[in-house]
Amino acid sequence: MFEIPVIDKPKKIFIPGGITPFSRRNEAPTENEAIGFFERDPTFADVLRNPQAYVEELKNFPAVISPDCSLYRDAPLTVQIANVYKKNAISHYWQSMGVGITPLVRWGSRDTYTTGVLPEPIAFAGIPHDSIIVISTYGCIKSKDDKYHFEAGLEACLRTLTPKIVLVHGAMPEKVFGPYLKYAEFHNYPDWITRKKGGRHG
Can you tell me whether residue 186 is helix, strand or coil? Predict the structure, then answer.
């Protein structure tokens, strides 16, 4: 559907010691870091325009998480689909060039994680099943409505992709995640600001 590029299963499952933002990649505190793009889209706009320019640099890290192209619920569905395409296309290209990609799963409005409008949940298109995925709660569970859509998308994600390992960037509250912890192995990572302050999410 929509010819969304496929991200292959990682050749080796890698569970990082932390997640460092792309813009802070030169500050990665350990060699056991994954590079993530959990930042405002303009921060990594050059990556989206010219992904080939960063291939050799990103090969130096044991894992790179797919670019986090925003899926705002109030954005037109066409824009959300385009951002899923962009995320997967860059990830697929980087994989083909030897970068170790850990696939990010990001959903937006209900239409991205259900089949109410589209014949398949577009948020999960091209993502490997029975493998490792990354999700993020950062800025996504502030309001009651946010939490509803996040948890509904999480349930759909786990049912559709049946991941073995889920890396969670941001807060991982028991009220949201508790019912799902038995379905996969979860690992929680604080956002960069919390991490630099020495705090933890739970």
Answer: strand
